[in-house]
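ok so I'm stuck.
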Amino acid sequence: MNNLMQEFPLMVSNIIDHAARYHPNRKIISRSVEGPIITTNWFNIREKALKLTKALLKLGVKTDDVIGVMAWNTGRHLEVVYGVPGAGAVNHTLNPRLFAEQLVYIINHAEDKILMVDPDLVPVIEKIINKCTKVEHVIVMTDNRNMPITEMENLLCYEEIIANEDADTNWIKKSEYDACGICYTSGTTGNPKGVVYTHRSNTLHALASAAPDMLGLASTETIMPVVPLFHANGWSIGYTAPLTGASMIMPGRDMT
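replied:
not stuck anymore, here's the structure
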């Protein structure tokens, strides 16, 4: 006889669903790349992640497509953490401190179809975009008023593409063993090496991190993730905090 109790796959979308359902008003505070301090909550993070999912699907994103994300620790980045895998795609975090030739290598090796970039990091991508052979779109993670001046053509504005969507959609269904994210090494011999995280591994990492012998986090906690989200999934704080319903303070640019 099969056990039917709590039979559901370990998907990261379940984590943000939990946070929005049981801790919708917990504050998430971050300094935006544009300057102002922005306050949001788990309900709004989920809503905007769903809108991003719809926008990505309209851009032609298919299951297991890889999307490169180069961004600092902000509430907007947290939306992307859930919106990208929610569309069935794989979140490939990009470290802006890597050498140009290493960035070109990992973007091409991972076969990134779309790049999502904070506005102050556009110059990093501008220098290498002509060598990134698979990239079809570059989305700048800001609003129309703060779109940067650049020689790159046909840039998409993050806030504009999600403003045209609503949150009336469902996350793309996948197996918990499917890829959720990719991180590449730095400071190793030869070219960087990619490590693929599954939905299952990230969910289990978040559960383990919340346990008493690890971080022991609860819904009454406030967390400030100093480690950048592009570093090994920010040590899964991007998943642990909503799993517990904790509040988050994100410092914008990482402090490492």
